[in-house]
Amino acid sequence: MKETKRAVIFMINLAMADLLQVLSLPLRIFYYLHKSWPFGRFVCMFCFYLKYVNMYASIFFLVCISVRRFIYLLYPFRHRRRRCDVYVSVAGWILVCISCLPFPLLRTGQETSGGEQRCFADLPLLDIGFAASMVTVTAAEIFGFVSPLAIVLFCTWRTVTSLREPHAASHDLGEKRKALKMILTCAAVFLICFAPYHLSFPLDFLAKANKIASCSQRRAILTLHPVALCLASMNCCLDPVIYYFTTDEFRRRLSRQDLVDGAEMQIYDGKDFTDPSGCQTR
Fold first, then answer.
1. DSSP track, 214-242
2. What pLDDT shows up at residue 268?
3. Distance between CA 180 and CA 243 in Å, rounded?
4. Residues of the chain with pLDDT under 50
5. Pairwise CA distance, residues 146 & 254, whole Å
6. In this structure, what DSSP letter does residue 128 have?
7. Rounded-to-integer distance, Cα 206 and Cα 242, Å
8. Under 8 Å between Cβ of 144 and 92
9. pTM
10. ∠116-39-137 over CA atoms, to 5°?
11. What span, in angstroms and rounded, lies between the C-alpha atoms of 32 and 122?
């Protein structure tokens, strides 16, 4: 928590978003193993909702990490206060939770022919009209993926150009390389996890709305979209790469020697003790 300059607050919130996804996984596993849902409609919709909250909260905080690291790199004497990051995080959670409400609200509960309750991807969509659906999908694509990706790519480009600036000290170059590594990791998570889903999302909608005439194309889209959804869940596995491989603080504080040194400092800090010579010191 003391390392405020490298977007630690946003990393903590990113871990919280991943935790929301993990909490719903046991029930998801149960449903897809048994093809039945005995836990009621509310629990189903809530677990379904958590999936999208995780995805878009992760997108939001990955953008915040990239921007925070970029701003500190170019303007090291600005935006050092942790309180600002806390306010941004609270506003981000409110925005994401409200924006993700249409995902469960546009799904209806339906039983199978055997009387078993459906859940998750098997929930049918409400018919709100093709035009309204296209507006919703377009807004989700622009504000949920295209705009955040553009911000991350801009931070990456500006960081790369700053490395090429002449008369930079060796310490500055080291900081810039570390910042570039973190921002590139955020961009990689975007492209690996979220790009396939947001590319297949509008196609999946068109296929389910029977707006694609070719049966083979519809079959391919409906087969690939669940794979893209699984890739979107992989961010829970890739986010720790940001914590460990791109921050010296995280590795140092997890190292055994640092933990031992920290414990010794807590034991002896401010306390009297006697050295081998018999003298009392502080």
1. -HHHHHHHHHHHHHHHHHHHTHHHHHHHH
2. 47
3. 14
4. 1, 4, 113, 265, 267-282
5. 36
6. -
7. 35
8. no
9. 0.77
10. 80
11. 10
